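Let us practice reading a record.
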Amino acid sequence: MRLVKLAIGLVILLLLPFLLWGRGVEEVFTIDGTISWLRSFGAWSVAVAVLLLASDILLPIPATLVMTALGMLYGPVVGGLIGAGGSFLGGMIAFLACAKWGRPAARHLVSDAELVRGEALFERWGAWIIVLSRWLPIIPEAVSCMAGIVSMPRRLFTGALACGVLPPAFTFAIVGHLGVERPALTFLLSALLPAAFWLVVHRKMRRATSMNST
């Protein structure tokens, strides 16, 4: 139960920037405004877009809107790669930071036995939790933090994170590039494609592991 409370506490902590500045950020970030803002950085616009998406761990950045703008600005392929790169970077920062500093802090709140149970949970189901949570707000950042706190295997986390961020990034980039508005279909694809992607990648990872062990 303490581990669950820790996860809930992380969600609440990550919600604070949205409660404090979310409305103001929503007023600033529009499709046209985001495109104009990125263009103003010239050659640095790609780096700015990546850092903008990566900062979603701390700031109330409307990631799906930014990904859509990237599709309109750079096309479905390049825009999708930029969006996926920014989301991946944000997830890795949360994971690595919490692995280094979050676990020692968590020891003051939960016992070593509970952390061990958390390790077992994330080693078995953590990849699915990461993949299936990427289309939700707030939850992906909290899950990445929890994965770091309970020392989820880095290779497993990296593979699941990649499968989680690639389909939504390309989906929203394609939507932006085509200029269509189908929110239900977009969110459905963002939720289902990562799971399908992970099924394929996970099977290949298991096959490679079994071949290396023989």
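A brief commentary: The chain has a mean pLDDT of 83.
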